[in-house]
Design brief:
It is a single chain. By secondary structure, the chain is mainly alpha-helical. It folds into 2 domains: about 50 residues, no CATH class; about 210 residues, MetI-like fold (Orthogonal Bundle). Helix content is about 70%, strand content about 0%. The longest helix has about 30 residues.
Length: about 300
């Protein structure tokens, strides 16, 4: 004789499966045909200007100055002359500034991440006087606008003879990034189960061993996520670059040179559009390469269990 299991919900006269949760209702609305159409329309409108700029960068100079990019479909002509002039032309020469941007950006990512990892571990797992006070002070530095520190820093760099080198840019970007980096990495390290740390201590591991063997592998997604943010911030920066590097080809990044082109060559759109995509290609490649770690870093700590 078979038996039927009566759940409390059925016994009380209702079935919980028939009552959708707010998350389920929101998911249903977001996956509806209307939402899909709206998403496609927004995506097209968002990418259309970028597509037009990309197409303009390959069009001949006369076509760019004579008509809009949409006329390419009736008279399709493509050329690499704009990119050749932008990268290797004597009047523009962006290749030097691309190298400068790489030299500026890589240390400006490595330095704050390295220092923030050490500081975050100390704040999370080491006990020392005024630890909480110092952490609050570091956290509070995030609300300080970087604009108020530019002139004092510039004066210090000039007085110490560092002006005209890459050091002011490395130091400035690292200092401005440290508060957020310490805060984010500290939060990720605090999510590491204390049992792992205690087990390592029982086995005789010190802080260096725990940091290298336990913390580093577990917070790698967070490191990758912040590194992508910092890379994009430094690569696209113009304010700090103009303050500490100016527009000299020795140390100025790519953004400073493109800003100069806007001022001196405002009518030569074929060079501006090509220069814009030269400046975009490296960040896009970095993001595509680090996308897997970037997403893991954003989601890390959001779900427990």
């Amino acid at each position: 004789m078979s038996t039927v299991k009566v759940t409390p919900e059925v016994r009380d006269g209702w079935d919980s499966s028939s009552v959708a949760s707010p998350a389920a209702r929101a998911r249903k609305r977001l996956t509806s045909p209307g939402a899909s159409v709206a998403a496609v329309v927004i995506a097209v409108l968002w990418t259309l200007p970028t597509f037009g700029l990309l197409l303009s960068s390959f069009r001949p100079e006369d076509d760019i100055k004579g008509n809009g990019w949409w006329n390419w479909f009736s008279d399709p002509q493509l050329t690499l002359e704009s990119y050749r002039e932008v990268l290797f032309g004597s009047a523009t020469g962006l290749s030097t500034y691309v190298v400068n941007s790489v030299v500026i950006t890589v240390p400006s990512v490595v330095i704050p991440v390295t220092l923030a990892l050490l500081a975050a571990y100390a704040f999370a797992w080491m006990k020392f006087p005024f630890r909480d006070t110092l952490f609050i002070a570091v956290f509070a530095l995030q609300i300080v606008p970087i604009q108020i520190a530019l002139i004092p820093l510039l004066q210090i760099f000039v007085d110490t003879g560092l002006n005209g080198t890459f050091w002011p840019l490395w130091i400035a970007h690292s200092v401005f990034a440290l508060p957020l980096a310490v805060y984010l990495l500290h939060n990720f390290m605090r999510e590491v189960p204390a049992e792992l740390v205690e087990a390592a201590r029982v086995d005789g591991a010190g802080h260096v061993k725990i940091f290298r063997a336990i913390m580093m592998p577990l917070v790698l997604p967070a490191i990758a996520a912040f590194s992508v943010f910092q890379f994009l911030w430094v690569w696209n920066d113009l304010l700090v670059a103009l303050t500490f590097a100016g527009s000299t080809s020795d140390v100025a990044p790519l953004t400073a040179r493109i800003a100069e082109l806007v001022g001196t060559r405002g009518t030569e759109w074929h060079l501006l559009s090509a220069g814009a995509f030269v400046s975009m290609i490296i960040p896009v490649l970095v993001f595509i390469t680090m996308q897997r770690f970037f997403v893991r870093g954003l989601l890390a700590g959001s779900v427990k269990g």
